[in-house]
Amino acid sequence: MNDDEKQDFFTAIKHGSIWYDKKITECLREVLEKQSSHYVNHDICWDKDDKYHYIYDNECYLFVFNDKIKVRSDRENVFSSHQTIVFPIAGKADILNAYQKFVSMTMEDEDE
What we know:
Elements: H1 3-15, H2 21-35, E1 45-46, E2 53-57, E3 60-65, E4 68-73, E5 84-88, H3 92-107
Antiparallel strand pairs: 1-2, 2-3, 3-4, 4-5
Helix pairs in contact: 2-3
């Protein structure tokens, strides 16, 4: 077992999964670095109580907490109006999918 595998093993024992908030946030940062040329550049911020990370853009949020990513749209007159989607994380592909959904929510055109 190499060092990364050992770390994942102990993390799974401690957190119940190898995909815990800190690791999800680190992987999300990697996704943002790779996607920055295609999308608006987003920054990951801490909430005021330092309990979770989030990204905000155009009345949409991406939250990382409780070992999941939650994407929420507070926009009016768009297909995803007031929609919230929770993405359980089992791998890097889930993080990329959650971020892509967030970006699609921010880019929706308002109904006339």
